[in-house]
Structures are given as structure tokens and as C-alpha cells.
Design a protein that fits this description.
The complex is a heterotetramer, with two copies of chain A (165 residues) and two copies of chain B (155 residues). Chain A is 21% helix and 28% strand. The longest helix of chain A is centred in the N-terminal third of the chain and has 11 residues, at 37-47. Chain A is built from four helices and eight strands; from the N terminus they run βββαββββαβαα. In chain A, strand 6 (110-114) and strand 7 (117-119) form a beta hairpin. The longest helix of chain B is centred in the N-terminal third of the chain and has 23 residues, at 2-24. Chain B starts with a helix and ends in a 9-residue tail after the last strand. In chain B, 44% of the residues are buried. The chains are: A alpha+beta (165), B alpha+beta (155). The complex binds adenosine-5'-triphosphate (2 copies) and magnesium ion (2 copies). One adenosine-5'-triphosphate sits between chains D (12-13, 31, 33-39, 63-67) and B (50, 53, 60-65, 94).
């Protein structure tokens, strides 16, 4: 399985449609402080199904929707789509390409889609769970997570080993 | 479940000891399962000592040594259960130049199995990447993509 | 004691608002005393919004924006009660190049009253320093002083 | 008042005698990861009288004494001296130069000296308190302290304002 593309609109500071095409090897994301780099990492965590606002630096999930700026009004929806190349059939579905979409409306409804078809959150997490791609795994790391991994309390690290088991 | 944890633990432990020596160019490290009343909850203690120092709890290490130790543990887990992609947000910030080179070498050696996405301000890490994506906020408050050439990068 | 806190608070607030705009090249920030039952314990909330963004709690800022906001508050306190020296340990790690330049400019403007000692891996900060001291561990585990010339610095 | 010199021996990784002469302006301390830079910052905090191991990344105060390395045995004492230029009489003593020394022996006794004369901890903290140079002030900052300054709990910041009052 390989990441192909990330598309989003209305997620955090990404008011306009944004697209990132992934390549083999190492992709670096660069830019000045506050331009939205960590928001991209959080968009990936979000589309993989995280239910915890804590992992996204917000208090309530609605705060991931673009909240407006000096020149723009706030938006009513956030949407992120992650496209995966599944030719090696790592994901248990019979498609060469799998796209996962998550939407959240300001009124609070959320939608999940696999290849454009509405589904439940459980369908998304079931699809990913064998690959171990749950949203808080060890494959999305930021400085705060490093502190958790190195914390003085041995039980804080236990979840890493459960993920790898 | 306990058996699975124990088997995984032993595999990760072997990897961690080897990767630590590779990243630190020597020294030694280990992980120890700490028995909680309930084996399903038992924790894991990390012991690490860079070259020439005595083996201590990870809290006695410097900021840079801690970040490198966390990377060694992360990749020890990867070897047991690789994930198709990995996103690292400014993990290289506390590292000095020679540790950045080792970090990048390690990423390169895992590139077969895993796509890496690295968020960084460090020019040395940028130089090692295969492709650079720029993000900017021309209009304040709104993020957009921008093309980046390494020479003009403002870290 | 409450009166003293209130007077200090107002002075720091004025400084903080001005220094934030200087460090961020625009935007606005403010501090608000949060009434606890006991005025001697009342806390202080920070609100900050870089140019063009809406005023929010400081937890909504990025890593670099947070570090810069902390520096603005630190110097706002300095203006009220300067201290003869100040030691900063890798505060510049999350900053991009243009914010490092602003950070260094701020240090320079306080140099009259205060000696600064900055621990850093960032070459741009090193270039701005008046003197560089090197520390090394030739013999593992034992720290000693070493002379440093900027050209050969391995960050 | 100005910082003139820091001398230490046996403090953390500084097994051999170490000296740092301060200049006007900005002094940068550089070196590879783990070489002892943060230990220098902690030596300054320690000589100013801190009683909290927590501020020095140790569990018990004796752990600041050089604990040995591959080639060296552990030492029995840690000693740090900070020399200050007091020509402007900021410190309430009639000396052009004031040096503050702190010693700790493995058996647990500690000693404080001002200009070479033994004194009590209280004499050191009284000397510095008017200048606001207590050990956990806002003039010694590392990344962990930045997180405290920016923490979600407003009362965490209160101590900064009390120091400046
Ligand atoms: N819902 C939202 N609507 C609009 N803007 C938002 C929203 N949530 C967060 N932001 C903005 O996104 C910015 C933070 O972006 P991010 O943390 O991704 O920066 P970064 O590129 O990682 O910066 P650094 O290099 O400092 O880590 C903040 O300034 C914040 O105001
Ligand atoms: N009592 C002690 N005896 C001997 N060595 C010690 C003692 N206490 C700490 N150390 C060593 O000092 C080292 C840490 O030094 P320090 O934290 O100052 O590094 P640093 O130069 O700040 O590095 P970085 O750039 O990674 O932040 C550790 O490797 C630790 O083993
Ligand atoms: Mg960030
Ligand atoms: Mg350090």
C-alpha cells in the first residue's frame, strides 16, 4: 500500500482547496512558522478516524473547521480525502485505489466515505486496523508524542507495544 | 495476549539495542518490562547510555539524546510491524548536524518499506529529501501550497 | 500585595502588547487577569493572534508562534524588572529563519541592561553572538571547554 | 551588576575544572548533543541556591555530583562559583567583586560561601533577592519552562508576575 494524494478544504487554516501528491522516498514539508504544516499532519490523523480532539490541539471537534480570518468568513464544513494505492491488496478490498473521506459540518454531523460511498466510522477503522493504521499509532509523531514515549512512567509506553503486537 | 506482548517485546528489544548503537555510534541501551499487578498493563522502562557514559534512566539524557532515543525505539517497533507511511513533525529540531545525518541515513534505510513525510525547518534534512513541498500564508490566515526550490528556502 | 500585582500586571500588559506586535510584525495580543476566589492567586490568560488571524487562546498557535509569544511575555516582564543577566537554553529551536532574526534583534535591543547567554544549535543565532564558547566531550562522559570558530561550527 | 566568571568542578559531567568568562552582549554556548551545555545552565541555577532537584533534572540533589564515566570514578564533591562585578553596588555589600560558591559532598553536607567566607543559604538568597535573582526566575529559560509559561492553566503563570512585582 502507498499514499497517493491528500486533498482537503475547510480543515483548519486550509480555507481553499489544497492538494498534496505523495512520492516514494522522503517528502519534506517546509514553510514559515504558523503557515499550516502541523495542520497537514493533523488532517491525516483526522481522516484516519481519530475521535479525540486532544490529538488535534482543539477542545471540541468543530474547531477543526476553518474559523475565518481577517478577510474571510468562517466555513460550514471541513473535508479531507486520503487516496491510497492498493494494487498490492494490503487493504482487504478488491480495488486498485482506495480513497477515504471524512466530513464535518458546523451543526455537528459527520460523514465518512470509502471510494465515494457513504459508510460508517467503523467501516473506515476496520479497513485500516489490520494494517495497524489507527489514528494514534507510532507512525504520526510530533514533539509532544516524543515526550510521551520518553515519559518517566513506564505504563505510558505500553500502548506502543500493543500496536506492534 | 500476554504471550503476544512478550514475543513482541523481545523482538522490539533486540531491534532497539541494535538501532541505538547505530544512531549513537556506540553506547548501549535496553528496555525492561516493568511488572504491574496486571501483566496486560505492565509498562516498559528505557535504559540508555551514549558512548562512555553509565547506563541510566532516559530522563538523565540531554534533549538531543532523548529525541534520538525515541527515534531508535520508533524504528525498533517498525521493524516488528512496518507501517506503509510515517509522518514526523519536527523531530529533528533538537538534533545537532551529525545526529541529523544519522537520522536521515536511518530514514533512507527504511525507504523500501515506508514512505516518509518529514516536517522540518532544518536545511540539512531538506537537502536529504526527495521532494520538497512548500506551504505559505500569502493571505494571512489561509494556507496554500507553494513551489519550493532548495536554494531559496527560508527555513 | 494585590495592589502591587495589579500595577505590575498593567505595566507588563502594555509591554507585552507592544513587543508581540514587534516580534510578529503585526497582529495583536493581550493578557487578562483571571479572577480566582483569592486575588493573590489569580491567574493570567494569554490571548494572541498573529497578523490576519482571529484572537484566540495561546494553545491554538503553532510551535513557533508559541515560542515567540513566550519570548514577548518574557521581555515584557524584563521591561518592568530587568535582571542583569538572562540565560536562554535552545529557545530558538522551533523558530524559522526570519523569526530568529527578529528574536536576535530583540536581544540586541536589550543588551544595554542585560547580559545574554544563549545555548543554541542554530547557525544564524551563533552568527549574531558576540562571543562563542564551545563545549565538547573528547573523553566520553567528561565535558571540557573548547575554542570555536564560526566557520568550522558543527551545529 | 555584571556576570564575570563561572567556575566549576565535579558538577554533573564537568569532572575536571571548568571556567567560563562572561563578556558584555550576547555569549553563545555551542556543542554537540549531550556535551554538557544544559548542565552549564543548571550550574548557574544551582549556585543561586535552588533547593528543588526537579529544576535540575535529578531525583535527589546528590545526583548533581559527577557520577563517573567509562574511564573515571565518581567524585565525592560538586562545587560551583559565580563571580559578579559589583562596582555599581547593585548587591547590598561593600565589595567591587562578589563571588558566590556552593558545594555538595556525597555524604550530603552542603556549604555556601560569599567571597570565600562560609555562610548560610539564607545569606546567599538574601543577597540576591532584591535583584530578583532567585533560582527559578524568568531569567533562566529552557523549552520546558516555555511550556509552563504557555500552559492552559492561568494560575501557572502567576509566579512570573510575582517575581516582577
Ligand atoms: N479552525 C481553524 N481555522 C483557521 N485557522 C486555524 C484553525 N485552526 C488552527 N488554525 C491556524 O493554524 C495555525 C497553525 O498552523 P500550524 O500549527 O500548522 O503551523 P506550522 O506550520 O506547524 O508552524 P510551526 O513551524 O511554528 O510549527 C495557527 O496560527 C492557527 O491560528
Ligand atoms: N552527575 C552526572 N555525572 C556525570 N554525567 C552526568 C551527570 N548528570 C548528567 N550527566 C550527563 O550529562 C549529559 C547531558 O548533558 P546536557 O543535557 O548538558 O547536554 P546538552 O549539551 O544540553 O545537549 P543537547 O544539545 O542535546 O541539549 C548526559 O549525557 C548525562 O549523562
Ligand atoms: Mg508545527
Ligand atoms: Mg540541552
Amino acid at each position: 500500500m502507498r499514499l497517493k494524494r491528500l486533498q482537503m478544504i475547510g480543515f483548519k487554516s486550509f480555507a481553499d482547496a489544497f492538494e498534496l501528491n505523495f512520492q516514494e522516498g522522503i517528502t519534506a514539508i517546509v514553510g514559515p512558522n504558523g503557515c499550516g504544516k502541523s495542520n497537514v499532519a493533523e488532517a491525516v490523523r483526522w481522516v484516519l478516524g481519530t475521535q479525540s480532539p486532544n490529538e488535534l490541539r482543539v477542545d471540541r471537534m468543530e474547531e477543526v473547521i476553518f474559523a475565518g480570518s481577517e478577510e474571510r468568513k468562517s466555513l460550514g464544513m471541513a473535508e479531507v480525502t486520503l487516496e491510497l494505492d492498493n494494487r498490492d491488496r494490503t487493504l482487504p478490498v478488491d480495488f486498485d485505489e482506495v480513497s477515504i473521506t471524512r466530513r464535518l459540518f458546523r451543526a455537528g454531523e459527520s460523514e465518512y466515505l470509502i471510494n465515494g460511498n457513504k459508510c460508517r466510522l467503523m467501516d473506515v477503522t476496520d479497513l485500516l486496523v489490520d494494517e495497524g493504521l489507527g489514528s494514534n499509532g507510532y507512525w504520526i509523531l510530533e514533539r509532544a508524542m516524543v515526550e510521551t514515549i520518553l515519559s518517566n512512567r513506564p505504563e505510558d509506553r505500553r500502548f506502543l507495544f500493543d500496536q506492534a503486537a | 495476549a500476554t504471550l503476544r506482548f512478550e514475543r513482541t517485546f523481545e523482538d522490539v528489544r533486540g531491534n532497539f539495542r541494535e538501532l541505538f548503537m547505530r544512531l549513537f555510534g556506540g553506547g548501549q541501551a535496553d528496555i525492561v518490562a516493568v511488572d504491574a499487578e496486571d501483566p496486560l498493563e505492565s509498562g516498559v522502562r528505557i535504559l540508555a547510555s551514549p558512548r562512555g557514559k553509565t547506563l541510566k534512566n532516559v530522563s538523565a539524557l540531554s534533549d538531543g539524546e532523548r529525541a534520538l532515543t525515541a527515534v531508535a525505539l520508533l524504528f525498533a517497533l517498525y521493524l516488528v510491524k512496518p507501517s506503509p507511511f510515517c509522518l514526523l513533525d519536527e523531530l529533528d529540531a533538537p538534533l545537532d548536524d551529525s545526529n541529523i545525518d544519522r537520522f536521515v541515513d536511518l530514514l533512507r534505510s527504511f525507504m523500501e518499506k515506508t514512505q516518509f513525510i518529514v516536517i522540518t525547518h532544518n536545511k540539512r534534512t531538506m537537502e536529504a529529501a526527495d521532494i520538497l513541498y512548500g506551504i505559505t500564508m500569502q493571505e494571512s490566515g489561509v494556507s496554500t501550497a507553494t513551489t519550493v526550490r532548495l536554494e531559496e528556502v527560508e527555513a
